[in-house]
Design goal:
Elements: E1 14-17, H1 33-38, H2 40-46, E2 50-53, E3 57-58, E4 70-74, H3 81-93, E5 97-102, H4 112-119, E6 131-132, E7 154-157, E8 162-165, H5 180-194, E9 200-203, H6 206-209, H7 223-237, E10 242-245, H8 251-254, E11 266-268, H9 270-282, H10 286-294, E12 303-307, E13 314-315, H11 321-331, E14 338-339, E15 343-344, H12 348-351, H13 356-367, E16 373-376, H14 434-439, H15 444-457, H16 460-463, E17 465-469, E18 476-483, E19 486-493, E20 499-504, E21 512-515, E22 521-523, E23 527-532, E24 537-543
Parallel strand pairs: 1-2, 1-16, 2-5, 5-9, 9-10, 10-11, 11-12, 12-16
Antiparallel strand pairs: 3-4, 6-8, 7-8, 13-15, 14-15, 17-18, 18-19, 19-24, 20-23, 21-22, 21-24
Helix pairs in contact: 5-7, 9-10, 9-11, 13-15
């Protein structure tokens, strides 16, 4: 039987959406909450249980909304507060929770706090940011997140007559988290959005919030205490709410962001994503096994959010150089596909050269592991990319709903679109779109939908004991879950070869294995012999006798 009191977010199926690029409800060329609300039946049909919304706050939009000028406002490009509430209520009616981005490492330089801070060095807002009267030493906080585009981390402000610190772009001054008043402001922001009924936040750049903010006096004395405070405040205001942390560090460092379960409830599984691509590049299962071995075990009621791509770059900065090079060679062979000297700015399907078998395989891996799977909009249909766009906008192409004008994203003129749709080549909306894939039972969409449904029907993913088994071929990965005489076994073939293989089951399974996808029955003993197609996967269920 399933364990009691398992948090909803450890069993969720999460779907990331850039509102401005998902669905245009008023035909002005920009996606909005009206359009998103109308597409909720689609997400419900796919099996999504939680939507993660990228920033939609008041913003000059110089960095896709991550340059926030008003934490309490909704960007008029995506609608009104009433539009947001209509969407939120409709999502609830579909049984879909909503979490939103909490971007509190920095603000826009157009935020009123910064405008006040630069004009008066005696205002309380001055200490909301990190200032230095003289050029700080180069070694202090010297590395910018966007080193290709923004070489400096200290910028001189003519009005303030001082330098301010920024880990991101110069128009995103860093907040001074060491200041208790700033932390109180952040809790007010958390409180405000919880009042509307959201279920939590994705915490942007969590290590930078509590990290080295340029000067010793601006470093929090108890860094993880900051996250404990935010986590505690969230639970007081919304018991059962979640903080999903963007933390891309070495494995031993990541564990600290869970704490004992009182800091971040979920962490993005950056390491697994990198090693899945390494496994697919080598056509060997070993990198996946290595990643699973390296990951620290989350505390009770915490977990890893398993994903393949997000709407940033595939960040390879935390993997060994040889792994990075293997992934580059296989999935980013051209220089324009790389970014920041560490990442890949590509979508999942183009990285797999449009091979549906490989995309399905990758989805099967993340959907069949412990922890909630996380997809980003469009990957379930094999949405393409636009490398002519600057930076990470290459992966933020408009959603493709049909063969109609602009892929059904908007009826606006092409010149009014926030970004051109993919209109040429194999990933054109004329070939890749929701409408046609919903009609085709063998489409990527329908295969992904079936895997999500299987995941949701089987509580053993959360209640069972995770097991990893051995096979006699290096391309084969075998893992599963066991709980009270029931077992679920998942087999993946990372290679382009059809393989006749053997797996050692020990006492995990009963005598009969049933394929949950095809219904095929297999006889099993301590050695399970099977044939698996190139890039194939098997989901097998078994119950022990007696």
């Amino acid at each position: 039987m399933p364990q009691l009191n398992i948090p909803w977010y450890t069993e969720a199926v999460i779907y990331g959406i850039d509102v401005q690029r998902f669905a245009d409800g008023n035909d002005d060329g920009i996606g909005d909450f009206i359009g998103l609300r109308r597409r909720l039946p689609y997400l419900n049909d796919l099996g999504i249980t939680c939507i993660w919304l990228l920033p939609f706050y008041g913003s000059p939009d110089r960095d896709n909304g991550y340059d926030v000028s008003d934490f309490y406002a909704i960007n008029p490009k995506v609608g009104t507060r009433a539009d947001f509430l209509d969407f939120l209520h409709s999502a609830g009616e579909h049984g879909i929770r909503v979490i939103i981005d909490l971007v509190v490492n920095h603000t826009s330089n157009e935020h009123p706090w910064f405008e006040a801070a630069r004009r008066d060095n005696h205002t309380r807002y001055r200490d909301y940011y990190v200032w230095s009267p003289d050029p700080p030493p180069v070694e202090v906080g010297a590395i910018s997140i966007f080193s290709d585009e923004e070489p400096k981390v200290w910028t001189y402000d003519e009005v303030a007559r001082a330098y301010y610190f920024h880990k991101f772009y110069h128009f995103q001054p860093e907040l001074n988290i060491a200041n208790p008043q700033v932390r109180e402001e952040i809790e007010r922001v958390i409180d405000y959005w919880l009042a509307f009924g959201i279920s939590g936040f994705r915490v942007d750049a969590a290590p930078l919030i509590i990290g080295d903010n340029g000067l010793e006096r601006a470093n929090p004395r108890d860094p993880h205490g900051v996250l404990r405070d935010f986590g505690g405040y969230l639970q007081k205001r919304r018991p059962g709410g979640v903080l999903l942390g963007e933390v891309n560090l070495a494995p031993q460092a990541m564990a600290r962001y869970f704490g004992e379960g009182e800091q971040l409830g979920l962490l993005f599984n950056f390491m697994l994503a990198c090693y899945i691509f390494a496994a697919m590049a080598k056509e060997e299962a070993a990198p996946i096994h290595e990643a699973l071995s390296l990951l620290p075990e989350p505390p009770p009621f915490c977990g890893w959010a398993n994903f393949l791509r997000n709407l940033d770059d595939l960040d390879l900065s935390q993997v060994p150089p040889e792994v990075r090079e293997q992934v580059y060679q296989a999935f980013a062979p051209e220089e324009e596909m790389k970014i920041f000297g560490r990442g890949i700015r590509r979508r999942l399907a183009p990285m797999m050269n449009g091979d549906q078998r490989r995309v399905e395989l990758a989805f099967s891996i993340i959907i069949s592991l412990r922890g909630p799977p996380l997809l980003v909009y469009g990957d379930e249909i094999g949405l393409g990319e636009d490398l002519s766009q600057p930076g990470r906008n290459a992966v933020r192409v408009p959603m493709q709903w049909s063969r109609e004008k602009n892929g059904g994203f908007s009826k606006a003129d092409a010149s009014d679109l926030i970004q051109p749709p993919v209109a040429k080549g194999p990933f054109s909306y004329k070939h890749v779109n929701v409408e046609e894939q919903q009609k085709n039972p063998d489409s990527l969409y329908n295969h992904t939908k079936r895997l999500i449904a299987l995941r949701r029907k089987n509580p053993i993913f959360s209640s069972g004991r995770f097991v990893r088994l051995s096979a006699n071929d290096p391309a084969i990965s075998v893992h599963g879950f066991e709980d009270a005489g029931t077992a679920l076994l998942i087999i993946h073939n990372l290679s382009s070869r059809e393989i006749n293989a053997e797996a050692e089951l020990d006492a995990v399974c009963g005598k009969i294995l049933v394929d949950l996808i095809t219904g095929t029955e297999y006889e099993a003993s301590t050695i399970f012999r099977f044939k698996i197609a190139p890039y194939g996967y098997l989901w097998l269920s078994s119950e022990k006798e007696g």
